[in-house]
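FIELD: query
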Amino acid sequence: MKRLLTVLLLCLSFAQSANAATAWYQPTPYPMKKMDGSAMPQNINIVHAWGGWFNNSYNLTLVRDDKLQIGGWGDTYTSPVRFDLTGLPATVDSAYLYLYALPSGSANPSQVSLWPITSVWDPATVGWNNFPTTSSGYYWPVSTAVNTWRGYTISGWYADWKSGVRPDDGILIWPYNNDGTQRFDKFVSSKSTDDGHRPILGLTFTPTLELKMPLPEEDIHG
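FIELD: result
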């Protein structure tokens, strides 16, 4: 009877596909210093998110504070960001970058464009004089919406990152229409204490639960 049960189980396989689900990935901030005042490691595999802003005038190197900002008042502000994608789904139906827009103090918002970064960069050294290289990007219509989320599709880039076609070096947020006329946009950064509004990756995918038989004979009979 034991042998017959084992033979029957060898013929069975069970796979169940669930409905599409959306996962929200929102890394928490990481301290810059240890309790003794020494510097904390800032490797992307530890902190899970990099980001900040710099411009071509007063802040030539990356500023890592509570905001991301683009545009300018006669100068140009830009913001690079990067997420550690380890452990996230390999295949998704869609991927979006969500940024929470803040009042910018400008009557003229910038036109947001996203550009995939194609060079390795370090938050300690990246800046206007050490500018990361990028490939072709996309821009979106100007939005005046503030104190709300704005979503930007990055599905193709995410697929390339996870498949290895494109290195995961992050995204440059750039003011597409910056013309020196006081255009400006601000967003909550991953370093912000506003934990409900830090940047998010929204991933829609269909998880698959697969159960295979046979189970070990000792698990069946004890």
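FIELD: remark
Confidence is low (pLDDT under 50) at residues 1-17.
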